Amino acid sequence: MTAGARVDFFFSFRSPYSYLAGPRAFALPERFDIELRFRGVIPMVMRGQSVPREKGLHTLRDVAREARRLGLPFGRIHDPLGEGAMRCLRVSEHAVDVGRERDFVLGASRAIWGEAVDVAADGGLRPICERAGLSWAGCLAALADPAMLERVEANTAALAGLGHWGVPVFAFGEELFWGQDRIEDLETALLDAGLGRSG
Amino acid sequence: MSTTRDLLQRRVGPGVVVALSRISWPARLGAGLRRATGRRGRVELFFAFDDPCSAIALTELSGRLASRRVALVLRPVLERGIPGDPAVPQKRRYAIEDASRLARRAGLELGRSDPLPPQDARFVAEWAASAPQGPSLERFCLAATGSLWLERGAAIDRDRLATLWREQFGQDPAPADGPAALARNERLMKRRGPYDVPAAWVHGRWYFAHDRPAQICEWLDQLGWRAS
Question: How far is the C-alpha of B32 from the C-alpha of B22, rounded, in Å?
Answer without folding.
Answer: 18
